[in-house]
Amino acid sequence: MPRTYTISNKNIEAVIAPDNGGMLVSLKVNGVETLRMNAGELRLHPMLAGGVPLMFPYPSATKGDCYVVDGKEYGMPMHGLCKNAAFGIKDMGEDYITLFMTNNEAWMSTQYPYPFRLEVTYKLTENGIKLLANVTNTGVKPLPHAIGWHPFFKATDKKAVKLNHSFTVNYDYLNDTDSGEAAQNMNLADVWDHVFHTPKTTFFTVENPVDGFAVRCDYDECFNVLVVCTTVEGATCVEPWCDLPNAANLHRFTQWVNPGESRDYNVTLTLQKLG
């Protein structure tokens, strides 16, 4: 059976699944669940199950599922590599857990030719949770990558869910080009699968009175992209990314870590129970 670990304090309870991409599979505020999760899909299709999957080394699709490094073609699947990987446990306590993984020979030869160590810490706050990713370059060349998080916020009635964000540019990911202004005042009962970039602030909010919670997501300035997807039943996905789709080829906002160095990426979800 896949491992799960629960961390909690007086207001927040979180469940993490190291064997399923190290993802957050449940997040409750004062007993109210904020995430959509289909446990039956978790083992076979973690990205479809829900929760908050981590996407690395690139968060989205790569044109033709391939890119070229030093004249050699590599494959990069949708949402990256670690989504189905098992993580080890570095450390844990009552209100935190730190997971880790490294590149492997198969990935190095066919998908991502950069040695790395990825650590992910889930740390509870009084009213939420910090999602902390640390990328260490253990190789000899600069390491390109883009962290992304994929929250499946529970949404029983999508028309009642309110999203507020400050992203300014709409991105046409089918044609790899900017395409007008980012949508505001979105009716989330409509079908959305949109990519926005260039925010004015470093947070967004989601209010869901029907399911009884509100979320504020604060993120580092390197999270230049927001994806809004409403195609999943029972969920509204609002996803902070560090780069655009096809990042392995375009490198518009790609992050780089020099050999022997590390970089941290911080996202904080602050939760409120409504009603």
Give a quick precis of the structure.
With 275 residues, this protein is mainly β.
Task: Please give the structural blueprint.
Layout: E1 5-8, E2 12-17, E3 23-29, E4 32-33, H1 39-42, H2 46-49, E5 54-55, E6 66-69, E7 72-75, E8 88-93, E9 96-102, H3 105-110, E10 116-125, E11 128-137, E12 143-145, E13 148-149, E14 152-154, E15 162-164, E16 167-172, E17 177-181, E18 193-199, E19 203-208, E20 213-219, E21 225-229, E22 235-241, H4 247-250, E23 255-257, E24 262-273
Keywords:
single chain; mainly beta; Beta-galactosidase, Chain A, domain 5
Description:
With 275 residues, this protein is mainly β. It has one domain: Beta-galactosidase, Chain A, domain 5 (Distorted Sandwich). The strands form six sheets. An eight-stranded antiparallel beta sheet has the order 8-9-10-11-24-20-19-15, with no helix packed on it. It starts with a strand and ends with a strand. The relative contact order is 0.18.
